[in-house]
Design brief:
The chain is an alpha+beta fold. The chain has helices at 33-44, 51-58, 134-142, 171-176; strands at 3-10, 13-14, 24-25, 61-68, 71-74, 79-82, 85-93, 108-116, 119-126, 162-167, 182-187, 194-203, 209-219. It is 15% helix and 38% strand. A 7-stranded antiparallel sheet has the order 10-1-9-4-11-13-12. Strands 2, 3, 7 and 8 form a 4-stranded mixed sheet that branches.
C-alpha cells in the first residue's frame, strides 16, 4: 500500500499566492502546488535558481490537502477553538513595476491578503521514479537547510511540520485516517471529486510563470479526534 508523509501547516499567518499584479497580492484559500514545492525545496536546500532541481522535486511528489477547522489557540487564559479568516494588509511599494515592465516613479499602495489562524494537513505521496524520495524529504523536514515559511517570509510556522507517516490507498484516504477536524480535501490525483482549475504549477525557468492543473474537491464528515 502506498506511503504518505503527513505535514501540519499551522501558524498565525499564511499566504498562498495566486495571480498577482504588484499592487494586489491575493492568497488562495488553501496551499498551492507551487507553495508546497517551495516549502519542500527550502527544507531540501534547493535554490530558486536551480531549475533542474526544482523540476526534479516537482516530478517526485503529489499532494492532497485537508482544510482544517476549529484550530486550537490560547488567548492568554485558556485554549479556544478558532476558524481561519482571510484579511488584507496594506504596504507602500516604491519602484513598483508597471504594465510595460518599467518602474513606477510614484509610490503604490499594495494590498496583500493573509490567512489568519488557518491550518492545513497535507499528505505527500511519492511518484514513480522519484528523484527525491520520501525518506530524503523526511530528513530535510527534520533538519531544513533553509528556513521554511508558510507561503511568504513573514509567515513562520508555529509547530514542526512533519507529523509522521501513514499507509493508505491514496492521499484522500490518508487524510481521512489522520486525526484532526476538516470537511474539505483537495487532491491532485484522486479524480472522483469535483474538478477545479488552479493555475499554480511552476514552469521552471528564468521568469516566474505558472501552468494550470485540475484539483479535485472531496467532502467528508469531520473526525471527532484531535
Amino acid at each position: 500500500m502506498p506511503r504518505y508523509l503527513i505535514l501540519r501547516l499551522d501558524g498565525p499567518m499564511q499566504a498562498w499566492g495566486t495571480h498577482t499584479f504588484e499592487d494586489f497580492r491575493p492568497s488562495n484559500l488553501y496551499p498551492t502546488r507551487s507553495g508546497l514545492l517551495g516549502l519542500l525545496a527550502a527544507c531540501l536546500g534547493i535554490d530558486r535558481t536551480d531549475h533542474s532541481g526544482q523540476a526534479a522535486l516537482a516530478a517526485s511528489v503529489e499532494f492532497s490537502i485537508r482544510v482544517d477547522t476549529a484550530v486550537e489557540r490560547f488567548d492568554g487564559k485558556q485554549s479556544i477553538q478558532k476558524n481561519g479568516v482571510k484579511l488584507p494588509d496594506f504596504h507602500t511599494v516604491m519602484d513598483a513595476r508597471k504594465v510595460d515592465g518599467k518602474a513606477n516613479k510614484f509610490p503604490v499602495v499594495s494590498r496583500r491578503e493573509y490567512l489568519f489562524d488557518a491550518a492545513f494537513t497535507v499528505a505527500v505521496g511519492e511518484k514513480p521514479n522519484a528523484a527525491y524520495s520520501l525518506d530524503a524529504i523526511v530528513a530535510a523536514l527534520r533538519r531544513p537547510l533553509y528556513t521554511p515559511t508558510l507561503g511568504r517570509r513573514a509567515c513562520p510556522l508555529s509547530r514542526p511540520m512533519f507529523d509522521g507517516e501513514i499507509e493508505a490507498e491514496n492521499g484522500v484516504q490518508a487524510l481521512k485516517s489522520t486525526s484532526g477536524h476538516g470537511a474539505l480535501i483537495y487532491s491532485e490525483r484522486e479524480e472522483s471529486g469535483q474538478p477545479l482549475p488552479l493555475r499554480d504549477v511552476p514552469l521552471h525557468g528564468k521568469k516566474r510563470q505558472f501552468g494550470t492543473r485540475l484539483v479535485y474537491l472531496h467532502k467528508h464528515k469531520e473526525s471527532p479526534c484531535s
